[in-house]
Amino acid sequence: MLNDYVRIMKARGWMKKNIPFLYTWHAYVGYELDLYEYFRKPKTISEVAQAYDLKLDLLERWMEVGLAIKYMKKMPKGRFRTSRSFMLPSGKKNPRSTGVILKEMMELHIPALLSYPAIMTTENKQTFDHDMHGGVVAQTSSLLEQAAYPVMHQIVKKKGAESVLDVGCGHAGYLIRLAKDFPHLKLTGIELNEGVANEARLRCRDYPELNIECRDAFEWNYAEKKDLVLINNLLHYIPHEKRPDLLKRASSWLGEAGEIIILTPMKHEKYGRQFSSVFNSFFSAFSNLHPIPGEGDVKEIAEQAGLHVSSIRPVIKEGGWFAVRLVK
Ligand SMILES: C[S@@+](CC[C@H](N)C(=O)[O-])C[C@H]1O[C@@H](n2cnc3c(N)ncnc32)[C@H](O)[C@@H]1O
Known about the structure:
There is one protein chain. With 328 residues, this protein is of the alpha/beta class. 47% of the residues lie in helices and 17% in strands. It is built from 14 helices and 9 strands. It has helices at residues 2-17, 19-32, 35-38, 45-51, 56-68, 99-114, 116-120, 130-141, 145-159, 173-181, 194-203, 243-252, 273-284, 295-304; strands at 72-75, 79-82, 163-167, 186-190, 210-213, 226-232, 254-265, 308-316, 321-327. The chain has a 7-stranded mixed beta sheet, with helices on both faces. Strand 6 (226-232), helix 12 and strand 7 (254-265) form a beta-alpha-beta unit. Helix 8 (130-141) packs parallel to helix 11. The protein is globular. The mean pLDDT is 95. Bound molecules: S-adenosylmethionine. S-adenosylmethionine is lined by residues 130, 134, 137-138, 141-142, 168-170, 173, 190-193, 196, 216-218, 232-234, 237.
């Protein structure tokens, strides 16, 4: 009897723990199909289903969940509208929409975590498809810019830097911010993924002095020395044993008084353990992505590259995201 009661309580506990999933699922579907935008003004479900060619029964189900979690609101005459839009992701057309984080979580992170039983018992890890996911990942990485850019701004200003190289620059968000704040800076970005590099060039079109090259950091060579080299959110693309080589190359592009800044999620005793552990679980599900470093690993690879760690500071404490500064 007691056993039955415990079973029920346990099952109830798991179901309750999973309720937050409803919110992310609803927001993900709402973002993907622009449903919050369609219901910005009160509309009936069949009106929207017809106008946008959506399955009526599924839209009804999505609406029921929305009403239950209060993301949607019932209006007179059988109509509904989006409620709490200030908390919800804006439409897909907005390149700054936070919906990309839902897309990355739902389409990449959760499926990868669900593959654990299969990949843990076989030789077959998944392969991360850079062409398919590169754009979304570059977009979600740029959400960190707001928090991390001030670190770069301060260093450029304090050092009186004249040139900056961004390795794995993604959509060039940091370079564009630097170009706006320091018009004299000579700015270069290298980016491996062609689609991402093209998008970066498009976004840089108002800054002709900002140069984006579609190149592999391990094959790129440059004679002119840089004052600052940025390596932002790149380490998990590089196997641990190749990281000293990347830093050696970065060091060779650096002037004597230059500095390398690495922005990376990191395993840390104190900060962001939940986030960094789940990030690591995600990266490890792919044969071509690699675990994030711990503080000791960063010091070790820096030493192997003949560099010195001058500081390690959290940028987003709860997310376990750090800025590491390296000097020669
Ligand atoms: C997660 S994104 C980060 C983008 C940007 N640095 C940021 O922090 O917003 C990492 C980028 O590095 C690029 N990348 C990976 N390996 C690279 C390599 N060997 N050389 C140049 N770029 C690389 C990827 O294509 C991807 O766009």
